[in-house]
Structure formats: structure tokens, C-alpha cells
Amino acid sequence: MSTTHTRGILTAAAAIVLAASAISITAAAQAADNPTGAGNHGDRNTALADAFNGVDRNTNWQQTSKLKLNFPTYHTEGIAYSQDHIFLSAVQIIEPTVKFPTPQNGFDRTPGKGVGHLFVMDKSGALQKDIVLGEGDMYHPGGIDFDGTNVWIPVAQYRPDSSAIIYRVDASTLDVHKQFEVKDHFGGIVMDKQTGHLVGNTWGSRRFAEWDLQGKQLSTWQNPNYFIDYQDCQYVANSRMLCSGITNLPQTPAAGGTGATYELGGMAMIDLKSRSVIRDVPFQQWSTAGHVATRNPFKMTADGGHLTMTVAPDNGEEGNGTEILTYEATVTPAK
């Protein structure tokens, strides 16, 4: 083999090594710039959005399982699933809030006292860790979202027009990171994987806000829908969010009057680009304690046209205690 040919081979080999090194460095830099794992690469599965567009009032939901949780769960708020864990947020009330006769210092009620919990379970529902979240008057965890790497949790004061802390919990290590604080009660959050931004909803889901990961508010808008108040949401591909919730409606005098409210439950899919409700449907199935199933914690998955929904509407001291209920339905996905 000639010296010239040998040099050519060595030069080509060196070029390949340098190119590989450049790719590795670029990938590492991208990972460093995006520690949450959010981005377009994980945003191509539209099965859930397509299937939910086939849900209507007549969809035949069947309850297929109950998983009773055998530890104190207090007032449940949000649920999320990683590969190894079930995450459940809840608030433990020590001193209830009390409404003022007239607003004081911009608040309509006292702050109360409580403890915020993020329960970490294995897939059988056994408690593995109780992560206490919150500071001072901010003790109320809300709806939560798992972005594939982290669980996002807002912990707010238990009153409107107040304040909240946005937490990020590594789903593998369970390390807790205080991401930023915001000036309002935010009771739910999702990570938009297309933008890498966070979207939260305020008390009663009357307003939405969008932030970057440093907490800079990028936009805010009013909820155009008054059907239900969203309690727990999840991200859906192509900048959408799927939420469930409840509205307490007064009864007629013959049915008990305003002291006997009717729980109207439902689900809604929201387009985060147009900020409009794409589809909303009622859900009227009930828990052991008599709550509508979409009262608080909620998550849904899809396998083609087969939908699986998990909810945990009952508090720890109600009925049979907190049970994770599974409902399933088969629909015709939207084309």
C-alpha cells in the first residue's frame, strides 16, 4: 500500500472521529440547554388526541378496576404516572380557611393552615415516599403533569388571587427542585413539549398563563369555557392539553336546596396555540363516596381507539378511602 493511500485512510478515519465527537458534544450541549427533556422529538404520538375526539355523551365507559390506597391520603388533587411510579398530590388541612365578610388586603378568606403532599407509590399502590411540598401559606398542591422526565406540581395558597410555587420533581431520583414562584393561585400545570414552556390554570381555571422555565410570564388568557372548572390536566401531542374537572350546581328546594349541590363532571381538550376548547364532554359516573369520578385526580391513555382513564375522586376519610378507579371505553378515533 502506498504512503499516500495510507495517509488518505488515516485522514478519513480522523475526520470520522472528529465528526462523531462533534455530534456527541452537540448532543450534550442540547441536553444541557434542555434539562427537562421537553421538545418536539417526544411530541409525535397523537393517538390520545385522535381518540378523545371520538368521545361523546353516549360513550360507554366501563369501570374495570379499583385500587384502594392503604395510607392517609387527605384531599386528593392530581395524579401522574411514570415508568416506575404513581404520583398523587394531596392537601392535608390543619386549619380550614374562613371567608371574610368583605375582602381584606385583596383576599376573600383567611389563609388557613395545611401540609402539601406528593405521594410516590409503586404500581401496586404501595407508598414508597411522602414528599412534603410548600412554604408558609402556600401548602395546596394542585393538578400535576409528567413530561417524561419530571413531575410538575403547583403548590398555592388555598385562596384565589394569592401566590404559588412551581416545583419540578425528578421522576427517577425523586429530587425536588423549586422552579419559581408566581403571583396568583395556580391549581394545575402542564409542560408543552412543543415549546418547552409551562402552562398553568388559576383558581377555578378561569385564567391560563404561560411561562418559560425561569418563570418569566410569556402570555395569559381567559378561559373561554364555563362548563366545568378544570382540576387536573395532562399534555397531549401537538400543543394540546386534556383536562377533567367538576362544577358544583345548586339544587332545587325539593332536592335539598343550595346545601345539596349537584356535581357535574366532565373532560375537555384545549388547543394551546389557538387557546380554544376543541372538545368537551360530560362524565357522570360516581365514586364509592358519591363524588363524580372526574372530581380531582385524572389521567388518560389511548391504544388506538381504546381509552383508559384513571381517577381518584374520594378523600382519605370518605367512603372506602381513596381508591384509584379505572374506566375504559372504545371509540372511533377522529380522522
Report how far apart the termini are: 62 Å
Task: Quickly count the helices.
Answer: 2
Helix and strand content put the structural class at mainly beta
| Domains, number | 2
List keywords for this structure.
23 strands, 47% strand, 4-stranded antiparallel beta sheet, 335 residues, disordered N terminus, globular, Neuraminidase, 5-stranded antiparallel beta sheet, mainly beta
Describe the fold and architecture:
This protein is mainly beta and 335 residues long. The protein has two domains: 1-34; 46-330, 6 Propeller (Neuraminidase). The protein is 11% helix and 47% strand. It contains two helices and 23 strands. It has helices at residues 3-33, 47-52; strands at 62-68, 75-81, 86-95, 99-104, 107-109, 113-121, 127-133, 138-141, 145-146, 150-157, 164-170, 176-182, 186-192, 197-202, 207-211, 217-222, 229-236, 240-249, 262-271, 276-282, 298-303, 306-311, 323-330. Strands 8, 9, 10, 11 and 12 form a five-stranded antiparallel sheet that branches. A four-stranded antiparallel sheet has the order 1-23-22-21. A hairpin with a 2-residue loop joins β4 (99-104) and β5. The longest helix is centred in the N-terminal third of the chain and has 31 residues, at 3-33. The protein starts with a helix and ends in a 5-residue tail after the last strand. Mean pLDDT is 89; it is low at 1-41.
Q: What's the layout of helices and strands?
A:
Layout: H1 3-33, H2 47-52, E1 62-68, E2 75-81, E3 86-95, E4 99-104, E5 107-109, E6 113-121, E7 127-133, E8 138-141, E9 145-146, E10 150-157, E11 164-170, E12 176-182, E13 186-192, E14 197-202, E15 207-211, E16 217-222, E17 229-236, E18 240-249, E19 262-271, E20 276-282, E21 298-303, E22 306-311, E23 323-330
